[in-house]
Amino acid sequence: MENTIFSELKFWLMMIASIVMPFGIYSYLILKKAISKKTTLIFGFALVAIAGMDVYFLKVLSAAAKLSPSLADDTIFVSEISLALYLVPAMFGGIGVNIISHVLIQHLDEANQRFKKEHPES
């Protein structure tokens, strides 16, 4: 077997973290009839963390691809195609930030409503 990035555990861990975990989170959020703000917030932070971990793994795999004798991994991790790989973590990170922002805005709206009830003179 040729010495390639695709046979390394790091690559498969990145694939699991990049694809399986975020879609598992999305599935849970969509299928759940009721969900707490805390759980939603945790999933939002998890998506941001997964995105950061993906970027780290992409950097590590890119450096390893430069050193490997295989041309297949050079085609993906060292060429211009590698830029497209960074779109996946950017998307997941953006969705995570959007989820966090949604929970924060909802909390601030509720806090504002409580303030108006407690201080009607304001």
How would you describe this structure to a colleague?
The chain is mostly helical and 122 residues long. It has one domain. The protein is built from 5 helices and no strands. It has helices spanning 9-31, 37-67, 71-77, 81-85, 87-118. α1 runs antiparallel to α2 and α2 (37-67) packs antiparallel against α5 (87-118). The radius of gyration is 20 Å and the shape is elongated. 16% of the residues are buried.
Short description:
This protein has 5 helices and no strands. It is mainly alpha-helical and 122 residues long.
Q: Report the total helices.
A: 5
Structural class designation: mainly alpha
Oligomer: single chain
Rg on CA atoms, Å: 20 Å
Could you give the order of the helices and strands?
HHHHH
Poorly predicted regions are none
The total number of structural domains is 1
| N-to-C CA distance | 74 Å
Binned strand content: under 5%
Shape assignment: elongated
Tally the beta strands: 0
Labels describing this entry:
122 residues; 0% strand; single chain; 5 helices; mainly alpha
Write the layout of secondary structure elements.
Elements: H1 9-31, H2 37-67, H3 71-77, H4 81-85, H5 87-118
